[in-house]
Amino acid sequence: MLLSPLTLILIAFVAVLSAFKRLQTWLNNRAFVAAHGCQSPPRFSRFQNILQQIKAIKSHSWLDMWVERYATIAKTFESATVSINPIIFTIDPENIKAILATDFDKFELGDRRRKLMYPVTGPGIFSNDGTAWRHSRALIRPNFTKMLISDLSTFETHFQHLLTALPPADLHSGFIEVDLMPLFFRMTLDSASETLLGPTMAFRSQLDPPGSASLRFMEAFDYVQKKIHRRNILDRGYMKPFGLIYGLWRATKKDEFEEACTTVHSILDNMILEFLRRPVKVLDESRKYVFLEEMARNTRDPIELKSEVLNVLMAGRDTTAALLTNTFFMLARRPDLWARIHTETEESFGGKTPDYETLRNMKQVRNLLSESLRLYPPVPFNARTATENITLPRGGGTDGQSPIFVKKGQQVNYHVYCLHRSPDIFGPDADVFRPDRWDDAGLRPGWGYIPFNGGARICLGQQFALTKASYVLVRIMQEFELIENRDAEPEWKEQISLVTKSRNGAKVALKRRERKN
């Protein structure tokens, strides 16, 4: 059927208008670039990018691929994609400072992050932008101070459950052989849920039988995080063809991701509704702190309560467990570090229960955790999207010192894992696990060390996570005198979901201390 003259005129008008808008945008961008003295950063081959990504993912060396890429290209570069805006990649501390602090209001998490996170967490502090984020932060921030100073006995209860879950010792050697990683993830799930939901509704994944709500929640929660990372990789511009193929293949299968999300939400929905049926408790400073009770003083919206609990649970549980796993992976291979922490623990506490103030002042423990967070940050990469035309301070031109142009809607990725391995920040041995480097008064990495992010969106639970990790580390030192490696794999390999941990876990042998009568 032939189109009418009027229809043809309308089509032509829309095409001309679209072309005019594109031309106007191009001219405006060109004028912006000239006015700010911007120059282009180096560019990376799209085809080479795809091949390297596939190879690195299969060999569990995706993060090291990025380290090599920054070393061979530049600290800031651009990757051509099939989308209009190429992605900018950077590990320049000045650029990261601009994104997270100086020009914070000109960047956001973006729709892509929300698309990935909302099916699991819903809208909350780690997925919201703008006014919604400020509301979440105002609601949650006061609670982290109370969580930090809350009674450490909560940690001790769940640590005792971890000890109970250990297998029996070998009768001849006296060593207990165990992979600590699943125990750490169960322990942090249980302890975080008790702080968030209260002791009567907390998960007991270390004690409950298979098929229990605790274990079903944990399995579903872990599954969706792993799948979110895969979706993140396959949703990138240069990987989208593979993502479409994968999506078509998955369409013929049962949607396990959706089922897992449903499991997570249904279990927590029931808990939130049960909580809301209870009368509001009178504020009592002598009672143990419960995050949900404090939140409910400001909102009774079950969706908002559930979303914020899920957001905080995802951050508070997984990052601490990953930190502990990565730390014990190294301790099993470094008897010198084990002995050093053991001595400091004995001098600080002897057989006494650790307290908050003393934990804060344990230099060897602090150095060990700082180095673990440096080489193996639980959140190894992040991204922001520009909300308007803007510049980043460096990365353009042949010397990389000129500002670069970031278009409105353009994504900037920064890789914390690679940043923390920069020789110009941490010296020629930047890829070596050396906790003593933190004793060097001259080491002032500033924006070159951001394991908990930085700026306005710095992790509110930073001190809470470090306190929990320090407590568990010290308590293991008090319970066991020796550690040995039981992993045939000598080198750390990545396992990436929403957090990054040792792919092989922390396979160790522990020997209990002899108790003196």
UniProtKB/TrEMBL annotation:
Keywords from UniProt, A to Z, are: Heme, Iron, Metal-binding, Monooxygenase, Oxidoreductase, Signal
What is the top-level taxon of the source organism? Answer: Eukaryota
Kindly give the InterPro entries that the UniProt entry links to this protein: Cyt_P450, Cyt_P450_CS, Cyt_P450_E_CYP52_fungi, Cyt_P450_E_grp-I, Cyt_P450_sf
Question: Which Gene Ontology MF annotations are present?
Answer: heme binding; iron ion binding; monooxygenase activity; oxidoreductase activity, acting on paired donors, with incorporation or reduction of molecular oxygen
Q: At which positions is heme bound?
A: C459
Q: Where is the signal peptide?
A: 1-19
PROSITE patterns linked to this entry: CYTOCHROME_P450 (PS00086)
Q: Which cofactor does it need?
A: heme
Glycoprotein in keyword set: no
Q: Which Pfam families match?
A: p450
UniProt family annotation: Belongs to the cytochrome P450 family.
**Name of the protein in question:** Cytochrome P450 alkane hydroxylase
